[in-house]
Amino acid sequence: MANYQMLIEGKWEDGAASVQVLNPANEQVLATVPAASAADADRAIAAAAKAQKPWSRLTGVERGNILRRWAALVDQNKPHLAEVLSQEEGKPLPEALGEIDFGRSWLSYYAEFDRRIEGDIIAADKPNEQLWIVPQPVGVVVGIIPWNYPSALTLRKAAPALIAGNALVLKPHEDTPLSALELAKLAEEAGVPPGVFSVITGAGEVVGEALVKNPIPRLITFTGSVETGKHISRVAADTVKVVSLEMGGKAPFIVMDDADLESAVKTAVFARFFNCGQTCICNERTYVHKRIADKFLTRFLEEVAKLKIGNPLDSGVTLGPKVNLPELVKVERYVEEAREGGAEILVGGKRPGGDVFKSGYWYEPTVITNVRQDMKIMQEEVFGPVIPIMEFSDFDEGLTLANDSTYGLAAYLFTNDMNRILRAVRDMEVGELYINRGPGESIHGFHGGWKQSGVGGDDGKYGLEEYLQRKTVYIRYQG
Fold it and tell me: pLDDT tens-digit profile of 206-215?
């Protein structure tokens, strides 16, 4: 067991109390981390405000070079970072290694903006004047991230915030704080100045609340649940903060009768079960055209049977545990309510048996049919290794079913009909649409949700805009 400290004001320190971090595969204590107080949160914000101005006055090249050094250190420490991630979150080791690579790519990508944050010179209305639009950092940023991608999301927030000249105070989820703390050590080694990047650990209702209520930060960038995002938005409104919220999803996966069946099946399985279904863009509800439904389901069940559930550090394992007991109980509740409502559980539907699974938060890969659109399992985010499959008659019905959701983060469509593809691009009510391929956004794209899946977003040049504000300057000179 390791005893971690949090990083505030460029100093590693303990809190007045500590909390345990458990391995979800066996419920053993991995580490302890400080349980920060509201006063600790305020100190971190004050330190960030003090450090931000000198940081912003460095050249973009100077900031970019620090991000490049940080990226190189992430590469050098990848095996260790992946093992920490796998143990604290339950992600199979190959997926953890992929997450480390994905996170490091944001550092490399945003370092390239060291010479690319641009303003405008616009023709003035009056003689002997110039009109400038000048980009500037927002100042102090608060980042609040969930437990499902604790390494990648740390860097998804940090890289654009820092290249834009801001200081970032990050609060990782209390279940998975170790990845962020490990990355903070590397940031310090790379030369990120004290106070520019802080990681503060503890309960959301204490630390997160204090960070959002503090009047100094001008931007709250959040990834997590809809209810928490709504609460953050309400609290942040009191001090007129900007909020960027990437919240839940209920991604539909539509398979038309002209689809490449083999590709659709394998992609649908992967899109549901990677990271134990704990991904906001996961395939949460599969809709299959009735002409191919029987063939699809037969092949789908064959692919699900190939999934190997077990210790995330073991070779060949493709499905780890849920992250904690409340999450496991939530998944069980959704399945039982569907069963009671008349749904048929084809495989899974329970915790696995055997000595290996006596401890830990395990749930079998589960496939459900005979579902109705009004069931909770079709409307609410399950976030686990459970997939309901429903038939439909034509593209119009499939599109209607897909859009029948309060969420609008991601969707999938498998078809070779260009008219259907173009209609989906026009009419699908989501921020990300994957056509004839599986999940995985590009760092230079834009990751944002529609409807109750969020406002604002991350990645690419549009994500960077969240971390900048614009100043309009009118200049008169002597003619």
Answer: 999 999 999 9
